[in-house]
Prior knowledge:
The chain is 84% helix and 0% strand. It is mainly alpha-helical.
Amino acid sequence: MKITDGNPLxxxxxxxxxxxxxxxxxxxxxxxxxGSAWTISAHVLAIGLxxxxxxxxxxxxxxxxxxxxxxxxxxxxxxxxxxxxGTDASILRLIPEHLVKYSPTSAFKVYRKxxxxxIGLSLFTSTVFFFGSxxxxxxxxxxxxxxxxxxxxxxxxxxKSLRLLNTQAVRGLKLIKIFAFMQLLPQGANLIFLxxxxxxxxxxxxxxxxFLASFVVTGITGWMxxxxxxxxxxxxxxxxxxxxxxxxxxxxxxxxxxxxMTFAIGQTGVIMLSIFRSEAEVGYYAIAVKLAxxxxxxxxxxxxxxxxxxxxxxxxxxxDELFYIAKKSAKLIFFTSSPILLVLLIFGKSILGILFGHNxxxxxxxxxxxxxxxxxxxxxxxxxFFMNMTGNQxxxxxxxxxAASINVGxxxxxxxxxxxxxxxxxxxxSICFWxxxxxxxxxxxxxxxxxxxxxxx
Length: 457
């Protein structure tokens, strides 16, 4: 038995290190670990670049600009959902399917048709929202001074849509290193534009311009990568299976509903705060969410490798191995995310004050609440991906609808009276409901759970 010096913090660190070491040595789990290495590294670096950018904005431009950025980001995400219509999720399924059944040329034809659909829908959607920007700013948000920003954001919808589509298409081609690069590029481009434009111009809107310019870079870069990657694989005698736009949309539309519910759970707090409260308060809340959800990026990185494995094992009827891998994934998520969550709970107020300024310390209670929700998310494992990959996407959709409804209802009730803390309560409750409901469904259907909690059996 290892002798420690009695320091609880050191004991905890040693315990976590031993657990991760055992996971690394697990041969059955090594495929996911190997595949996740590049993605996790890119996510960690992207987190760092994102924090640096937010610190610069908070220190130089202030909480109000951060709040405007958060509102614009939520607005852009909402528009993009209607522009892309779930095709970013469906392309991840269709490209590998056509590569296996037909040929790279067939997969490229599906990608090209989807790409043209997304460009057309994006241009139509951006036009509608561009001309409706005055109405949206005045009647919905009661902030007429944001009209210019809403109109500007609408112009960049096509680039954001292409970025989302091409990032998933790269995954479909199993270009893991390029996928990692695509995850890193937006934050890197944003930070570079923020610094360069800030050095040469003195304008409070510099963070907005840098943010939007990064989508131009990532959208065009992703397009070029996909063109080159497919051309390297295609042959003149490839078998091609034509797929109509209607068929692509039929596959994509159910995924659109899940995307809308995910947006509602993640962004309703920002939107409601922007309606009922000041831009500065939105900025405080946005920073609390960014810090508390740092671990969700690690979860996403692990899930990106675990999800295909879930599908493979389930459709091979290897149920015991499926749950073994799912539980191991949850274990890895827990031990990589728990130290971050613990630091945020203990030192969160100091981190907010030191990094972003003493005014941001008011967001600590909201940060703590959201962190608790993220803890439940981490011990639950890959609930969403597990249900999607095992044919239970309809049940997941129902759970997400209930979770989103709870989130919207609580935000409407709590934000007018208690502001950012109300938004944090709504976020925490909806995340806990979603994960617990999914775990109960999995337990009922399979008789097993994928959750992981130390010392629990």
